[in-house]
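dumping the sequnces here before i forget
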Amino acid sequence: MSESAWEKLRGLAKPSLAELFAGDPARLDTLATRFELGEDEAATTIRFDWSKTHLDAGHLAAFEELAEAMDFAGRRKALFGGEIVNPTEGRAAEHTAQRGVGKDESVALAAENHHRMAAIVEAIHRGAMGEVKHLIHIGIGGSALGPALAVDALARDGAMVDVHVVSNIDGCAMEEAFKGCDPATTMLAVASKTFTTIETMTNAESAIEWLRENGVEDPYGRVVALTASPEKAMEWGVDETRILPFSESVGGRYSLWSSIGFPVAMALGWPDFAEFLAGAAAMDEHFRDTDGSANLPLRAAFADQYYTRLRGCQTRAVFAYDERLALLPDYLQQLEMESNGKSVKADGSPVDGPTAPITWGGVGTDAQHAVFQLLHQGTNLVPVDFIASIAPGHDLSLDHHRILLSNCFAQGAALMAGKDSEDPARAYPGDRPSATILLDEVSPATFGALIAFHEHRTFANAVLMGINPFDQFGVELGKEIAKQIEKGGTKFDPSTEALLELAGIS
Ligand code: F6P
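..and the predicted 3d for all of it:
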């Protein structure tokens, strides 16, 4: 049945963006939607404008047929119902329960964990661990990318605690954090779902050593552990009272909402963290309760599938026209590529076509002066997302912000319109797609909704492709070989052997 929907999709005409706008005066009404966070007139909104993509009524209907064939409604129900949606690991994926939306027991457990986390955050703010000016948050992948992004996005106007996120095993990263912190007023957050990740545990040991060398008598007493493996954190030396657990059913790259968000709450204060969760919950409810292409993450997934599977696009680009969201592309790279970069379906059979495109991007307007040449005139068709905020994040004259937003909107218009020229080097083909997400402001609530939108978009894409977005076995082999290298005694290929010898590792 899904094949017949794809047949239909392949058979549809491919009008240009200009033709689509000319042929449908109501195009904006269908494809640009105001998402409201709150119910009154003054509600904060996010505009999701997918009108500059090639989706039209025919595509939307055929993609809705595909969604039905792939049992989108059933998969979504299973997700929110806390059923096993990660069959290869036999797990549910209950990140929405962290936001209060999901199976009752899971929501209750998440609320209990949050209650404890709030109490600890507030106690530390009140001085329970002595003076805390700096927090070094140590984690990697999903245990670092979300916290780094959220702190950078939301805590620019004076954080309650100065947060440094360290992920890389390269000691330069840890040393950089040490330079910015006073050991006497620094606490550590060790963030790892498994509490076994080599980078995180090595960095944590170094941080303990640094505190000890700098006169902190009980360095483990300065640690808060954020983990789904509390017993491992205890074995490592963290007192039970300073372990903030979360459920095994929360995936690493979906864990920002759990205790992994501790540095965000430390920087912003609990009320803002609660608003961040509420913003995500509003998007959860929209995703759970809205059918067809009015469902914003599903509609975005329709466009993603269109470009990947019908137009052969191997990448998709995200440009945040906002310094506060500069780390968003990094975050989305893990979310989308670790989730959907797969070659087999959930049942183990080979996929029917390309899966996740390569997500890349940057910040506007910087990227205009670096990579936009390729977007406008290169041979690759790259669907682009622009993300911006109507309210500026600074107090400088409004010229800055007006110029920033004008450039953002100009790029979408230029990609679509193109420009003829007698000189081929100066011609722009146009008809290049983009979507725009325009926030009223970057606030904890809009930011929460924005991240939840992308989580659900990723899930919706996985359902349409029939794959499991919640495992990540592709990261294991490299880790295993690194361990064998560390251990010694294994013979590798000649190239690897030569590199090891040159670096003095063998
Ligand atoms: O190696 C990939 C990965 O497992 C990610 O999925 C995860 O976010 C990251 O490592 C960190 O894992 P942990 O939180 O268990 O340290």
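The chain has three domains: 1-69+289-470, 119-269, 474-505.
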